[in-house]
Amino acid sequence: KTLSARARRVPAVAVVVAAPASRAGAMLSSMATVLRSVCASGGDAGESSPASLSPQSAPRFVPQQRARRSSTQNRAMGPIMMDRREEPALDFSTFNDDDEIASSATPAAAAASAAAAGQPEPEVSSQGPVSVSTRIEYAAVPRGRAQDIFGIVTLQAEAVDAATSGAEQRQPLDLMCVLDVSGSMTGEKLELVKKAVRFVIEESHSTDRVSIVTFNSEAARPLRLCRMDVQGKSEAIASTYRLCAGGGTRIASGLEAAMQVAERRRHRSPVSAILLLTDGQDGSSARGYASMLARAQRAGCSLYAFGFGADHDSRLLSDLAEQAQTPFTFVEDVGQIGAAFAGAVGGLASVVAQNVKVVLDCQATVKAVHTPFAVSREGNRVVIEIPDLLADERRDVLVELSVPEETGAIHETCLLRASAQYFGLAAGAVAQTQAVDMVLQRTTIEEPQPEMEPDEEVVSQRHRVEVAQTLQDATAHGDAGRFQDAQQLLAAQAAKMKGSKKRSAVSEGLVLELEDAQNRMQSRSSWQNGGSAELRDAMQMHRMQRATNVSMSSACSNEKRSKAMYLTKGQQEWVSKA
């Protein structure tokens, strides 16, 4: 009786309550509050839309909006929230309903498909967006001496001028956002995730496409792979307001639904990614994640994993990231969700090269190749395969070589020749860099020897590789409860780096990383409450030389700055806007 007259124009709602008498009054009072908020937003069709409502007042069910959708759209979107006993399984056969790619994006997408099918041997050029260089640990070694030596092969992607990085420059994106809507996401976490997704939607170009998949005990697809023109953005934003939390956590079901979206789409943009965001432990009984990642690769999709809070399954997400060859992002403070999400999408929006193959033709014996990427060998040739490069991004391959004992009047030794082949997205064609030699000067034992100061860049990359390995070993100790062993391992590596003659800004940042890791492993409690996730985040970041944000957790014991070493200018722009 207390509801306004406008309530009589709201489509009828029937509420059936089954509850003990002691709780019925409180439940009915809560329902009345909800109905008042619905009435306050306006009851006439067309007076309001989900996008105009606040997250707190937006109704989960908007009859006038649903009436405008076709029956095909309703089936494709899947359930938002219903009784678990009545929720039908997703009909994946409807997932081939993705919007067409904008005509301006079609040539790039077609070129990507042609590249995948194979092209003639590319011409060698120094004008492309990727360059290769080499550095060696020591400038000279005596001719009559055999010696092991380190060197680095560096790939550098050119920066994109912000003034020319508009819609006509960057490549269209296909983004599948896989969002945890289980009961533990209730409240601030879900609202911040919804806000982060809306930011991505609003910043998307009209050539981009976004799909939203949710999961709790089951998976749903609130938004098909929809082009982000004006109408598509409106539909996408409305779908975020309808999200609500409840139920268990089945990450595998959410990933399977996203995989179906990626595989069944009729059109493919040049850059595609699945973004997995969760705060819980996976309740799936049969996971099969390795096969899912293989399918994602075949579908041309990368996968980025984000873990919120201290309770998520950091071991699972880190393993997924390692297999996907992408960073694992730990978001300890929920307020940093938006920045992490923006940094990842900003990186994807700046991809300049894909399917990068680094070729090393070696004259010296290669003892080891330190890289997280796939390595193959055939005779004296070593090939490293890197999925992609962002604008302004650097990747270093650390190689350990055995320098032969030279005789005679030889003044230099070529240890290897490096080059790279890649698919350039701007040109829409396969390109080849010029080959670069790694050359070592040879002197006689009788000659005055140059100062044996190691090269600073090579030392920095040795330290990066060593720290990543130390973090991995310490993580294994932590998982086994051997926290004292982990502390000793981390302290020994930090002491070794502090005693190094060559200490760069990179090395200083890595020492801070080790010291924070020690603090995270003081006890089982600190390990379980964020320590495990933070070490896995840092380990994968240093391996991949890629980060998604520069946010520092409030639990960090020092002002560590390692994330800033890897965040590109394009990512920084997105993070600053978020």
How would you characterize this protein structure?
This protein has 578 residues and is α/β, with parallel strands linked by helices. Helices cover 36% and strands 23% of the residues. The chain has 15 helices and 17 strands. The strands form three sheets. Strands 2, 10, 12, 13, 15, 16 and 17 form a seven-stranded mixed sheet that branches. A hairpin with a 4-residue loop joins strand 15 (412-424) and strand 16 (429-432). Helix 5 runs antiparallel to helix 6 (230-241) and helix 11 packs antiparallel against helix 12. The chain is globular and about 80 Å long. Mean pLDDT is 82; it is low at 1-12, 16-24, 37-87 and 162-167.
Question: Average pLDDT value?
Answer: 82
Structural class by SSE content: alpha/beta
Please tally the β strands and state the result.
17
Oligomerization state? single chain
Main β-sheet description = 7 strands, mixed
Helix run count: 15
What is the terminal separation in angstroms? 45 Å
Portion in beta strands = 15-25%
Rg for CA atoms: 27 Å
Which residues sit in consecutive blocks of at least 5 with pLDDT less than 50? 1-12, 16-24, 37-87, 162-167
**Envelope shape:** globular
Helix content: 25-40%
